[in-house]
């Protein structure tokens, strides 16, 4: 028997995905079709250009409409508002496939879906839903989500952005920092406190007087995604732009549950791409008269990566089931986000080593994934904050402050 018959990499699915535990058997035909459609889109519309975009710190705004046409935005929301009416596993598979291309592209998709469309659907009025959701789902409009502030990242409860009731409108002051999509967004969902210190969501449209969105430069991570601030200098916000359905920190935290779930899947995509690249490279690269794949140390790296990717897939798949049943808890989501992102970052680092010097170049995707994943490890709750969320769940004792 030829050596390749034993080799996992020779299986038909090598370039199509990593499925060592045959988890495909657990997916529906519809879920597989969704995955294939997004995979094909990424191959055609993202992968050929992403390295150039990242090197040039270019956010390809035209991708927003293309993703909208594909049905990536609001996939789990009802069709009557432009959503896809799909389940959470399909949403997860979409995030996985987009992040195989690039974490920044997945950021664009998850902010639009989970952090802008979801809260408008869940906490908005019928008028707000009808006004904004179809534009966001088609990609005609791009949205952003403003929770983090310069002095309040992990602790959003301390936010200082505030609005006053002026009778016929609200007057908003403050600022937000590190906001994905902000420099290009048409709509910003901003979290701010009222005069009673209660947090509410406000919808700000580009062009409102006193509202600006300066871009954040000099990032070494998520270079094809645009990041910026949101600055509110006496912005008059119409009263009908407040989301009435839920107030308090629990409202943005509910949105984060959905986005963190998507990241748990997305990170697997980045890991898969690194793994495939390193595997292929290691079989081609010859040192000491042998492909480096023949060395035990390389095989150890690859074996451990496959094991960790597979464990992450099982976690994500089960979490998808719990999401669909409405049973997934914040702590279960924290565990998956934390584990899967750290796994992907570790896989990217190991793969970078397998490629030696070539691993640091933009000729391969690995270093870009690795740098992107440093942000993914931090945003939507840092690696350590998710550990503390789990710690609180286990012991019943919060240790944040
Ligand atoms: P805590 O006292 O625990 O909770 C405050 C209130 O919220 C309620 N709550 C929830 N409600 C619904 N769903 C959830 N998941 C909820 N979690 C908590 C809770 O019951 C309480 O309600 P009430 O009625 O008693 O007031 O809050 P805390 O201030 O102690 O904070 C807890 C902590 C640290 C876990 C939380 O602040 C946190 O998660 N911090 C991390 C911040 C974060 O993740 N920021 C992300 C910003 S957005 C982003 O990064 C987007 S990147 C997007 C991209 O590009 O992909
Ligand atoms: P800090 O909160 O200052 O944390 C610094 C360090 O201290 C971390 O290691 C943290 O784990 C640790 N730490 C903090 N508190 C504790 C504690 N109690 N115990 C132990 N350790 C602790 N935010 C948005 O609102 N919208 C967005 O679209 C968005 N997009 C982003 C895009 C990018 C590229 C990045 C980098 C960030 C984005 N963020 C966004 C912000 C992101 O959510 C925050 O960066 C993150 O929540 C951490 O906040 P911080 O950066 O202020 O770090």
Molecular structure report:
- The chain has 401 residues and is α+β, with helices and mostly antiparallel strands.
- It has 3 domains: 3-138, Orthogonal Bundle (Butyryl-Coa Dehydrogenase, subunit A, domain 1); 143-241, Butyryl-CoA Dehydrogenase, subunit A, domain 2, CATH 2.40.110.10; 250-395, Up-down Bundle (Butyryl-CoA Dehydrogenase, subunit A, domain 3).
- Helix content is 49%, strand content 13%.
- It has 11 helices and 9 strands.
- The protein has helices spanning 29-46, 50-55, 62-70, 88-101, 103-123, 126-138, 250-284, 296-324, 330-354, 366-378, 383-395, and strands at residues 143-146, 162-165, 169-180, 187-193, 199-205, 211-212, 227-238, 286-287, 290-291.
- The protein has a 4-stranded antiparallel β-sheet with strand order 2-3-7-6, covered by helices on one side.
- A hairpin with a 3-residue loop joins strand 2 and strand 3 (169-180).
- Helix 4 packs across helix 7 and helix 9 (330-354) packs antiparallel against helix 10 (366-378).
- The longest helix is centred in the middle third of the chain and has 35 residues, at 250-284.
- The chain is globular and about 80 Å long.
- Flavin-adenine dinucleotide binds next to strand 1, strand 3, helix 10 and helix 11.
Key descriptive features of the protein:
single chain, 401 residues, alpha+beta, Butyryl-Coa Dehydrogenase, subunit A, domain 1, Butyryl-CoA Dehydrogenase, subunit A, domain 2, Butyryl-CoA Dehydrogenase, subunit A, domain 3, 3 domains, four-stranded antiparallel beta sheet, three-stranded mixed beta sheet, 11 helices, 49% helix, binds 3-thiaglutaryl-CoA, binds flavin-adenine dinucleotide
